[in-house]
Every structure is written in C-alpha cells, then in structure tokens.
C-alpha cells in the first residue's frame, strides 16, 4: 500500500513540475493588441511611492494615483482607444504581475536592463534621468557622493537599478534594500541608514517637500547601466509594443514629460503638503479598517470550515482510501505550517493567476483562509482528543451513529475547550491581514503607505495604524472573552 501511495505522489509531483516548467514562448499568432482593445481597458501596474513618477494624491476628496508615469500610461491608452486602469503593488512584484497576466503593462520608472529584457518586452525610451542620494539635512556636510558612505549603510529600492549599482559601485558600504521608497525615507530619518539612492527627479521631490532632507550628487558610473525609463509589456506582445511605441515616440518628439507631465506632477505634490494632518486622511484609514475586517472575518469563516474538514480527515482510520485522505490532510497541514504566509499569498495571486485571474482581495482571502485552516485543524483535533472517550461510548450506547455522535456530542465539547485558541487565531488574523498589502489590497498597512507617500511624514501614519490595530484587537478580545465566560456557565 505504501508503494502505491509513493507512486501516486510521484506522479502528481511530475505533472506539477511539468506544468510549472513548461516553456513560456509566445504564441505564433500575437493577439496582445486585439485582446486589450477587445476588453476596452489597459491595466497599468505601478508602485505609487516614487514621486514625481507615480504617487498618491488626494483629488476632489478621493485618493488617486498620479504622476508623470500615469500621464504616459494615459497617453498610450488613448492611442489604443481604450481606458487606463491603474493597479498598485510593490515594485518587486510588478514584473511577476506582468508575466502572470495581472497587468497589461508596467510603467514605474523602470530601466530596460538586459536582464529584464530577457523576460519582458520594452517600448522605446520615454524619459532619460540621473541618480542622486538623499541624506538627512543635518548630516549633509558629512557626505559628498557614494564614496563618502564607507562603513555606513545606504538604502535603495529592492529590484531597482540603483540597488544593483549601489552594491556594485560602493566599497565597504552596506546596501539595504526595501520595497517602498517611503520606508527608505523613514529608515533614513530614524538613522537606520545614512542615505537613499534614487532617481534625481524623485530625490528632488522628497527634498522639496521635506525640510529635514537634503540631496547630494551620487557620482555613480552609469556608462555600463541604463538610467532611462521605458514601458514594459509581456514577452511576445509585439503588436501591443508597436502600438504603444507610436504614443511613446510622440511623447519624446513633443517633450511632453518636461513640458506637461512633470509640471502637473509638481502641482499634485504641492497639494499633498497643504494639509498633512492625520485627521485629513481619516477616509483612507477607514477604508483600511474596512478591508482589514473583511479579510479577517471571511478568512476566519472559511478557515474554520476547512479546519473542521482537515481535522476529521486526519482522524480517519482503515482502508486505502481513508489512509490516503489522512495522509493528504496531514501533508497539507504540515506544508502550510512550514511555509511563510507571504509566500502563500503571492503564490495564490500570481501562481494561480496563470490559470484564473483572481482579484487581489479574493486572492488575499483565499490565501489567508488556507493558512488559517491548517492551524485551526490542529486546534480542533486537539479539542476532539481532549473529550473523554466515555462521551463517545455513552452516545453510541444510546443508538447514535458515529456522525451524529461527532456532530452533537464531541464537537460542541471540543469547541468549548478550544475557544481560547480560536479566539487567539482571530486576533492573529487581524494583524496578519497586513501581509496582503504586497499584492495591492487596500488594508491598513497599504493605506498607511499611501498617507506616508502623500504627506512625506514617516512616523505619524505608523502611530495611527498601531492605535487602530490595538482598538480592533482589544475590542475583538473583549467580545471573545464574553462568549468564553458564557460557555463556562453552561
């Protein structure tokens, strides 16, 4: 029997590996342009924490992604005769989203490096920039360029050209990567790092809107690297790239970036800093609370159902089929508990995106539910095992079936025993829901990053969400304790 199980699992792994490693060559017939025009929208992926390229601004009371890159995207969409839809996510997830079909193009100040060109197609260049280093104004006299940071730590956005060049062209300097530029600025102001390497327009934007910061030249040797920006499309999208190039060529010919797009972005930057109080952004925090609670409640509900199924499956005995089900349930629980939730979230969103295009919120709920189910299964299994065997014997002696015994006798008592553990799982999920911000779900962490990008204030938004998380977890804890006391009185 064990041999059959091993053969079965080997077959499944072989099929999975064959699917995962299948070649990703383009179809003979390129229908990329037709598909975009048929659906009527062009989905643009970006990381809105890089002003003036892309950032969040409050427009007519609503948060909106703006910047020169968004203007480039609107120009391309107009040229294709479709509407632009902007999707926000972390910078290092953009190309994965492009390859898995979550977005149609990526515009995020991205350099068309040789390594990236192997995996995606780029348009002609729409902007040529340079690099600078942002430091604390009080320490400006200590640093002059990249060679001044020996023995210090310099930061750069993970996955960016500046991150790679900082590692290559600095000596005795530690390079720290973060997915968000606003996180890097916060690390700079809290003296966790000594400087932040970024593109010159973005450096100018941060310095102009934060009097505590200053900018110094980087003096990086950029002869061997590309400091320009281009639009990325999925590999093999020849027709779509050719159509987009028509708009990009017009942008370069008319110098629209310098003449129109950058000045417009500057106006939004000034608007953002008119009112930087946290109360001004109460709608953003309220939206974050709403999504956090939706994710938590849905994940607890589905996670509990999955946990019951898994726990019962793990307690099956006898027969090949039951043994196989028990083995699969055990393998699932061990695998889920042995892998990080962040990886699971990214796999559901990007990995399953190759099969079905799930929205970010749905993907987040599914991933967290699957994760929670594995832990709940162990809580329930422990609770069932804690019920005295005499309860089962008494129920069976009364003529109850095994299913009825489990449903009406064992599970209610087990639930009472594991209620504190289930309550702890609920509290944990409120906090763990923050992980889905990496795929662009607008929960509290995501909204706090928006506020930080809007206001250039690093600590205040974090303090606000800390208080909000405490209020939610404390309230939930009190409610759960009330039900626990009611159970004790039964």
TrEMBL record:
GO terms, molecular function: transmembrane transporter activity
Subcellular location: Cell membrane
Membrane spanning stretches: 291-313, 347-370, 458-480
Membrane topology: Multi-pass membrane protein
Any single GO CC term annotated in Swiss-Prot or TrEMBL for this entry: ATP-binding cassette (ABC) transporter complex
Keywords for this protein: Amino-acid transport, Cell membrane, Membrane, Signal, Transmembrane, Transmembrane helix, Transport
Leader peptide range in chain numbering: 1-28
One of the GO biological process terms: amino acid transport
CDD domains to which the protein is assigned, alphabetical: TM_PBP2
Domain ABC transmembrane type-1, first and last residues per copy: 289-477
Entry-linked SUPFAM superfamilies: MetI-like, Periplasmic binding protein-like II
PROSITE patterns (alphabetical): ABC_TM1 (PS50928)
Family of this protein: Belongs to the binding-protein-dependent transport system permease family. HisMQ subfamily.
UniProt name for this protein: ABC-type amino acid transport system, permease and periplasmic component
Organism: Levilactobacillus namurensis DSM 19117
